[in-house]
Each structure stands twice: as C-alpha cells, then as structure tokens.
Write the structure tokens for this entry.
Amino acid sequence: MKRVRKPNNLSIKISPGNKKMGRIPAVSLPPVTVCAPDVPCSEECYALKSYRMYPNVRQAWNHNFDLLISDRDKYFSDIEAYLNWKSPRYFRQHVSGDIRDQDYFKRMKSVARSFPGTSFLAFTKRYDLEFGNMPSNLNIVISMWTGETIPDTQDLPKAWMQDGSETKIPDVHFICTGLCDSCYKCWHLTEDGPKDVVLMKH
C-alpha cells in the first residue's frame, strides 16, 4: 500500500488517542461553549476537567473552534487530510464539544462517505437536528442525562448516564468498560445487538 505523507499545511489539532480511547484518534471542540444552550450536563461535564487542568488540551480545543469559526471549509478539509494520511479504522468526533449545527452534521456525513474504510462515532445532545440519510459507517448516539425526557429522535441509539437513580434504561443494553480500543461497541450500535450503552457516573 502506498504510504501517504503528512500534509504540510495541516492546522487542525487531532488527538492520537488518550487513556480511555487508546489509539483511536479524535477531533474535539471546547466543552459547553459549542453545545446546545442549557444542556443539563453543563455543570458536571466530564470534559471540563481536562479543559481546565491541561493547558495543551485547552489550547488544542480552542484552536479547533477558532478554525471552525474562521474557515469551516479548512476545518473539514483538514480532517479529511488527516484521515487520508493515517487511514484509521476508527475515528471519534467530539470527545469534547458537540455537533455545531445542521451544516456541520451534513459535512460530517460527507467525510464519512469519503472514507468508507473508517468507522465514525459521535455522541450528541443536539436533539433538534435532523439525523436522516446517514452513511452506514457513521454512528450517532444520543446522550441522555438522569431525569431527562427521552427525546423524539429518529430511533437512534442512546448513551445513558447512570448515577443510581436512572430508571428509563432499556433492559437490553451494555455497560461501558471504559476501554474503547478493546471494545468498539459504540461504533456499531446500529447493527445487531444492544443499541444502548450505560456509562456509570464517577
């Protein structure tokens, strides 16, 4: 297979992985700021801890947001350049942050269609967006929060936060192991098997 050189003008900051995700690359945006207004998890957002504690993480996520706002075409072309360079089997969108708007999601679908050999995953609380006509290698998971009303979304899989009080979790589900690169189930929730994942609050 022909080796692809690293793009010379790659501006976007893509993480090669972390403790939980292993070597699965991900692109992120600042927490809360880019999320839907009044999301119920804003006060306890898990990504805020990393954003506040680690200057390099904060700078990378802020940089990506600045790039998105100043040049959306460049933001997405850089993601495509990275994928063409690295050819990862799995890719995560938004370890921090969320789908910005309908156009952003349209571009996410376009990227996924351009790289059928990569499986893409994104969790979201943007219940207001239209999630139809998705490529088979893009999995969108609706994030739930304790006490929330189940949103009227297009039969998408859901991720449930369990703090001991959540009672709406379907009987058929699996519990997150916390080790993405030895599991990968969240990338395949739309296939046969459980379509809901439970994340234990910690």
